């Protein structure tokens, strides 16, 4: 080969294609020229990417829009639930108040029923025990013992029934019982005079609420029999119930004087009542209230038992004064 041919051959070897450099990064592009994307392909790729982004965004929007009704329903349900709870709580309070009122009403009704039943039992007991005396009196209308015991029995019945009577009908029933006692006492007094029976008759009027009639009757007893202690003791009680403290104290002192050995129980009864009056006066002076058990200020006449053998006290006998 000639020298010129060798020279040309070297030139051709140097002229081999060199790796291109990326104009942007300055790095050599080692990819074959056949794999390099054309501008059209680059634009197509960009278009695909933009399209994909648009599709994703659209899908997100659609998903959110589909979820909105559910979210709204959830929020609405929560609000409804809270409202229901509030209404339930309010209803519960109303029910509680209503239940409390019903309980109070039921309790009151129960008490009324209880006292009514007790009154019926009391009536039944006395009717049975007095039945034999009534049969005895029917055979002999002048049987003093039967008349006295019937009077005492109805008096005791009426006094006990008065503490149980709550309705107008029951109170009328009590007055009827006490009226029968007065009737039997009147029959007895027509046949036999007795200060004890007169006192018991006056106490029946007192329990009926006729305080003035009872006061007049007891004043008459103490005028006719000034040494009879039961007259003074019960007169003091009636005065006390009317708020006439001075007269009550004077009568109680008379009861003490006429029953020095407490044979009738008048002395101890009077001492108890005088002590109660003094205690009440002392408390009033000190500006405090005191429960003394006095009958002062009563209007029904049933709060003071009075002193009578018919009510479990002393001083009553079948043929006493």
UniProtKB/TrEMBL annotation:
Highest taxon of the lineage: Bacteria
TPR repeats: 229-262
Residue ranges with Basic and acidic residues bias: 18-32, 83-96
Keyword annotations: Membrane, TPR repeat, Transmembrane, Transmembrane helix
Ranges annotated as biased composition (Basic residues): 7-17
Matching Gene3D superfamilies: Tetratricopeptide repeat domain
Low complexity composition-biased segments: 106-117, 279-302
Cited PROSITE patterns: TPR
TM regions (residue ranges): 50-68
InterPro entries: TPR-like_helical_dom_sf, TPR_rpt
Record field: compositional bias (Gly residues): 303-321
Disordered as annotated region, ranges: 1-46, 81-119, 279-321
Protein known as: Tetratricopeptide repeat protein
Source species: Parafannyhessea umbonata
Lineage start: Bacteria, Bacillati, Actinomycetota, Coriobacteriia, Coriobacteriales
